Automatic annotation (TrEMBL):
InterPro entries: DUF5789 (IPR043899). This is DUF2795 domain-containing protein. Residues 102-118 have a biased composition (Acidic residues). It comes from the Archaea. Residues 74-127 are annotated as: Disordered.
Length: 127
């Protein structure tokens, strides 16, 4: 993946259409100034509907951004929680955890211990 790809898509947000704006801005710039000029620009998101930049930054007011990277990070940081990737996704095997036979037996034993009441660990019963 190239550096351009890294700047185009970041944590579920597609910056492809906004990157030219961020690159051409004169920094520093406040959130209010940015929203006034570019707030209607939409950012596509991986797992949700597009969102206007103004919606993301509207409450930041006179917060000043010193660089393109700082502004991009703040936009990502202010995104709603439904923006980032698939929930509970892992690329490490199946999408559902597999419980081993030993884990099932331990769970059954623990449940049986709780039903019996008193502790079964001899370290806690002898004194």
């Amino acid at each position: 993946m190239s550096d351009d790809d890294d700047q185009d898509r970041f944590e579920g947000v597609n910056f492809t259409d906004l990157n030219p704006v961020l690159e051409d801005l004169s920094y520093p710039i406040t959130a209010d100034e940015f929203v006034e000029q570019y707030g209607d620009r939409e950012l596509p998101r991986t797992n949700a509907d597009p969102i206007e930049v103004g919606t993301v930054l509207e409450y930041m007011g006179d917060t000043t951004f010193e660089s393109e990277e700082e502004l991009r990070q703040q936009i990502v940081g202010q995104m709603p929680s439904d923006t980032e990737g698939r929930t509970n996704y892992s690329d490490r095997g199946g999408s559902h955890p597999v419980q081993s036979e030993a884990a099932e037996e331990a769970e059954e034993q623990t449940a049986a211990d709780l039903e019996d009441g008193p502790a079964t660990d001899t370290d806690t019963t002898q004194q």
